[in-house]
Amino acid sequence: MAKVRCLILGGGPAGYTAAIYASRAGLEPVLYEGMEPGGQLTTTTVVENFPGFPGGIDANSLMDGMRKQAGSFGASIRRGTATSVDLSERPFKVTIDGKETLEAETLIVATGATAKYLGLPSEEKFRGLGVSACATCDGFFYRGKDVAVVGGGDTACEEALYLAGLCRKVYMIVRRDVFRASKAMQEKVFGASNIEVLWKCQTREVLGDDSGVTGVRLVRESGEVFDIPVDGFFLAIGHHPNSDLFAPWLETDEKGYIVTSGKTQETSVPGVFAAGDVQDPVYRQAITAAATGCRAARDAERFLLEND
Ligand code: NDP
Questions:
Q1: CATH architecture of 2-114+239-307
Q2: CB burial of residue 27 (10 Å; 0-12, 13-18, 19+)
Q3: Residue 99 CA to ligand 1 centre (angstroms)
Q4: Confidence of residue 44 (pLDDT cuts 50, 70, 90)
Q5: Superfamily name and number for 117-235
Q6: Tens digits of residue pLDDT in 215-241
Q7: Beta strands, E only, 81-130
Q8: Cα of 179 to ligand 1 centre, how many Å?
Q9: Is residue 138 among the annotated active site residues?
């Protein structure tokens, strides 16, 4: 069985950054990229808020750069997804694609989170062409235009408020007649003159043509069907952390996010660390994921010094 000092699961900003730091520290990390090499960022186009790129950077180029940077210091970056784990004792056992099992002295879980979508074929068709699950990433492209946000939670309110600062008009599509969001958030939304809340409405279809999204077809609880013209359609109906595989072993919160301890990336199992969106229900940015990847690698380095 192959033995690894530091095994990293996840090919997003958190995983690659962990690999950069772990390889420079001599931990000879092995990183498996999982199902979505490059992570959630690759579902967007240009990243304009990652420091150091004043003209913005193509999301795939940014992730390629991180991958190459990790490889240049000796990290072994591999295609493959962890399909089972045994974290009952060190070394931890991790099986990749149901075939090869590795023994890992330390493990960094950076498997990310997946934005929830409604599951409509039209939504899938226009993904990246007006359909987005990240207003902070893509909102800027809709300056002066009309957009819609689906959801009634804190994320939906926050995204609607962010978009209201950029766009001409923001529709919020809420399936009930109340928000799930906190009172403070609700008040901000009600105070924004260019946000219109469409209560008791569900999305039937995302409308569009060769240029991308042109509108949304909605259905009210009463059965009335109507269209609204918009250029952007933002999903904010929650995220699902990719922690299912680890949940039997690691402490998670009620939504499944892996719990880390204080200002470290330590999980409830010594030697296992978590970084990026799989442990972050709040910030969910490439830069914050990268930062926690750095911390996880440094935590793993310290752990090996103290326990080897
Ligand atoms: P939530 O689960 O809190 O809210 C999801 C929203 O999407 C709800 O309004 C829900 O409706 C709606 N929804 C879910 N599925 C569908 C669907 N299929 N069709 C239409 N609407 C749907 O997720 P959030 O991402 O908003 O928040 C996650 C956590 O992060 C929360 O604890 C939140 O408080 C926190 N957070 C805090 C922030 C802050 O403090 N600044 C900012 C962002 C998030 P319904 O209510 O009917 O179920």
A1: 3-Layer(bba) Sandwich (3.50)
A2: buried
A3: 37
A4: low
A5: FAD/NAD(P)-binding domain (3.50.50.60)
A6: 999 999 999 999 999 999 999 998 899
A7: 82-86, 92-96, 100-109, 113-115
A8: 9
A9: yes
